């Protein structure tokens, strides 16, 4: 019986030691400790996106949305002279040379929306332990999300087509290449959000000192 208790006691002692060390570290390096927790949670949210994105894309791929063109907000032109759209989802499946149509757009946006809602509550309650007005924070978060989504969508025009072309055509990986390209574009989107959102969270997720 005593031998059975010893491993449990060691685990408890190890947890207590880690808890004390982490508490001391947070006191000495508050911003760095927040960044570490932010990094861990963000990677968890990214993993969720990598699961949701293919699922939504697969489900919507059987709808007529694939053949619905969604190319809006032209800003100049590409190097080959074709129009450059912030949201560039030409009609037709990616395997047939299209841009995925409205189906691809919805798959991306549904994935991002679900991930960011989860991210909002996780970062507010766990990373920053904010106790300010949640509705004010949610409003600024939504504004930041919309702005970052527009910026990320505009940047996607530079790397989306080359990545898909590389995996699907140059390397001739077909459907496997399309899935790999999905993962890479989603990781790039997540990386952009990761580096931009941390300073924004520091501003909107504050701790209000309560009166004694």
Structure description:
This protein is mainly alpha-helical and 212 residues long. The chain has one domain (2-204). It contains five helices and two strands. The protein has helices at residues 2-28, 30-60, 101-127, 134-170, 174-204, and strands at residues 70-77, 83-89. It has a two-stranded antiparallel ribbon with strand order 1-2. α1 (2-28) packs across α2 (30-60), α2 runs antiparallel to α3 (101-127) and α2 packs antiparallel against α5. The longest helix is centred in the C-terminal third of the chain and has 37 residues, at 134-170. The chain is elongated and about 60 Å long. The relative contact order is 0.12. The model has no long low-confidence stretch (mean pLDDT 83).
What's a quick, concise take on this entry?
Helix content is 72%, strand content 7%. By secondary structure, it is mainly alpha-helical. It has one domain (2-204).
